Amino acid sequence: MSSLSTRHLIGIKNITEADIQLIFETADNFKEVINRPIKKVPSLRDLTVANIFFESSTRTRISFELAERRLSADIVNFAAASSSVSKGETLLDTVNNILAMKVDMVVMRHPAPGACVFLSQHIPANVINAGDGTHEHPTQALLDAYSIREQLGDVANKKIAIIGDILHSRVALSNVFCLQKLGAKVRVCGPPTLIPKYYADLGVEVSHDVQETLHWCDVANVLRIQLERQDIKYFPSLREYHQFFGITKNRIEQLDKEIVIMHPGPINRGVEISSDVADAPQSIILQQVENGVAIRMAVLYLLASGK
Questions:
Q1: Measuring CA to CA, which of 19, 61, 95, 155 is 20 to 30 A from 87?
Q2: Cα angle for residues 187, 190, 196 (degrees, 5° grid)
Q3: Euclidean distance between the first and final Cα of the chain, in Å?
Q4: Do residues 299 and 23 make contact, with C-beta atoms less than 8 angstroms apart?
Q5: Which residues contact 302 (CB under 8 A, 6 or more apart)?
Q6: How far is CA 97 from the centre of its chain?
Q7: Do residues 169 and 223 touch, judged by C-beta distance below 8 A?
Q8: What digits encode the pLDDT tens for the residues 240-261?
Q9: Long-range contacts for 269-273 (Cβ within 8 Å, ≥24 apart)?
Q10: Is 239 exposed, middle or buried (0-12, 13-18, 19+ CB in 10 A)?
């Protein structure tokens, strides 16, 4: 198999394990490219990619843009806050206007779950979901699983804990789907108020005990407390959250084994994770950032190849 089973990357739920393995193998090749003195290849030289972000983003937008430049694509950047969207233009009108400029691929982040599905049904360009509300963030899940594979040799049968604000996270759901397709054992951990009830139906373990979860897992993927999405209080204070659920050096030192520490960023140091853990030798947070470029290069290349 040398092409993906889909024209779009809307979510991990919509792709197969074979798709994931193909993306990983392609990313292996691109990782060599981005570590060479000359980091560009002409793979997307004749294609134009539009990055359409209806929500603010730094890491994901820069990572996609860098991946596109490494592949020699032409790039159109679109920020909704400074666009006609703020004047009342609809999503479809906005995108159709951009497509009239002969754009081949659209990378979109949108606050509404399902926005990328809607878009893919109405436009001829390939659509890549860069995060839709609290639904999915497929390239983040792919780079997380790729980083685990790189660190531990394989994802199958590994115990992966996702710890933190599960309720407001699009990373958590995509990670669960991706890790399960690759044969990992998955557990979510956090305060009861921050874990949706339906997670128990996804075939994952649910825990509210951080120390026991750290003893259980091989990898701890720590999620940010998303205060900007919280319209009510889900826990008494940040200090209390850190006391009961923060990943600290003291908690890590109590373990009888070394575990891998991950975080999709941005980090709230001193809240969900302490600085001495985020910067510890077993932390692969910066490797995740590097792998994000290789994974996004692979996704762009494979979707373009399937045209």
A1: 61
A2: 80
A3: 15
A4: yes
A5: 3, 4, 22, 23, 26
A6: 28
A7: yes
A8: 889 999 999 999 999 999 999 9
A9: 270/242, 270/246, 271/224, 271/225, 271/238, 271/241, 271/242, 271/246, 272/163, 272/164, 272/165, 272/222, 272/223, 272/224, 272/225, 272/241, 272/242, 272/245, 272/246, 272/247, 273/222, 273/246, 273/247, 273/248
A10: exposed
Q: Is residue 108 helix, strand or coil? A: strand
Residue type, 271: V
* DSSP secondary structure of 26-75: HHHHHHHHHTSSS----TTTT-EEEEEESS--SHHHHHHHHHHHHTT-EE
Write the pLDDT tens digit of every residue in 181-199: 999 999 999 999 999 999 9
What is the sign of the dihedral through the CA atoms of 269, 270, 272 and 276?
positive
For residue 58, the one-letter residue type is: T
Going by C-alpha positions, the residue among 89, 94, 135, 90 that lies closest to residue 114 is: 135
Give dist(CA 80, CA 50) in Å, integer: 13
pLDDT value for 307: 64
Name the residue with tokens 């950047």: 77
Dihedral sign for Cα 281, 285, 291, 293, please.
negative
Question: Residue 142: which pLDDT band, with cuts at 50, 70 and 90?
Answer: very high
Q: Give the number of other CB atoms < 10 A from CB of residue 238.
A: 15
Average pLDDT over the chain reads 91
pLDDT for residue 230: 46
Residue 229 has pLDDT above 80, yes or no: no
Q: For residues 249 and 276, is the Cβ–Cβ distance under 8 A?
A: yes
For the cut 90, the answer to whether the pLDDT of residue 84 exceeds it is: no
Distance between CA atoms of residues 79 and 110, nearest Å: 11
Domains of the chain (ranges plus CATH)?
12-137+289-305 (3.40.50.1370), 138-285 (3.40.50.1370)
